[in-house]
Amino acid sequence: MSEFTRILIFQCNKLGREAVLVLTFDDSKTPGIYHTVFPTAFKVTAFGPEGAQQFMVTYKSQLGFTRAQIDGGTVVPASTYTPINVGQKTILTKKSVPAIEIYSFSNPEDITPPTGQMVAQNSTDGKENIGVGFFASPDDRPYQILVFEGVASGSSVQSEFTPILGGYITADYKENAVLRGQISTPLLFKEDLVQLPQLTYWELEYNAASGTYAIKRDLTG
């Protein structure tokens, strides 16, 4: 599949109550979800009770592996990463020089025979966290959206990432937080981004009588 971009605009007008929207790639079919691989709070934004508001989210299909570092429960911007395509493999290594350790990924190479996976091998001398992310721009660091935690030396992670985005209303998470378990509030939004057109609009609504939220596709936008 050729590279693609998806733009999602979440909006509301006179919502009536403050709401915090959390977006995450937490599809329950991801192998090892909440055991060996953990999603992050990809985007977090607050909507106020009054006025018209919009929040734009952009996803691009160029994926990458990262050496994921977690500080206080939050994944920090990656300093070691590489773009990768489906059917390729890369190797994470560590080189020690005086007073510093240098980590790097090898240039990705095609897997033989071809597979539908992306593979990252940990060839350092210890456990490492390996992240999966995407590049919003070739010149930017990747957004890290999944973390394989504690990958042993000599072991590999295999990802068949499908960009299924989930949306929740909850104030329990900050952006880039590593999610250790399923979010407890109702899932309001679940979409495979591959199946959407390039630009879509989504309306956030609050029902005061029931005290519930909903996210619905706005086909007039």
CATH fold node name of the largest domain: Immunoglobulin-like
Largest sheet: 5 strands, antiparallel
Low-confidence stretches: none
Whole-Å distance between the termini?
27 Å
Which oligomerization state do the chains in this entry correspond to? single chain
Count of extended strands: 20
* Contiguous helical run count: 0
Element-by-element helix/strand order: EEEEEEEEEEEEEEEEEEEE
As a whole number of angstroms, the C-alpha radius of gyration is 19 Å
CATH class of the largest domain equals Mainly Beta
* CATH architecture designation of the largest domain: Sandwich
Shape: elongated
**Overall pLDDT level:** 95
Strand order of the largest sheet: 3-15-14-6-9
Structural class: mainly beta
β-sheet strand percentage: over 45%
Helix content: under 10%
- Total number of domains: 2
Task: From the structure above, extract its key features.
single chain; 221 residues; elongated; Immunoglobulin-like; 5-stranded antiparallel beta sheet; 0% helix; 5-stranded mixed beta sheet; 2 domains; mainly beta; 20 strands
Task: Describe the secondary-structure layout.
Blueprint: E1 5-13, E2 19-24, E3 37-39, E4 43-47, E5 52-60, E6 63-67, E7 70-71, E8 74-75, E9 81-84, E10 88-97, E11 100-105, E12 109-110, E13 118-122, E14 128-134, E15 143-151, E16 156-159, E17 164-169, E18 189-192, E19 199-207, E20 212-218
Parallel strand pairs: 1-19, 10-13
Antiparallel strand pairs: 1-5, 2-4, 2-17, 3-15, 6-9, 6-14, 7-8, 10-11, 10-12, 13-16, 14-15, 17-18, 19-20
Outline the structure in words.
The chain is an all-beta fold and 221 residues long. It has strands at 5-13, 19-24, 37-39, 43-47, 52-60, 63-67, 70-71, 74-75, 81-84, 88-97, 100-105, 109-110, 118-122, 128-134, 143-151, 156-159, 164-169, 189-192, 199-207, 212-218. The strands form five sheets. Strands 3-15-14-6-9 form a five-stranded antiparallel β-sheet, with no helix packed on it. Strand 10 (88-97) and strand 11 form a beta hairpin. The protein is elongated and about 60 Å long.
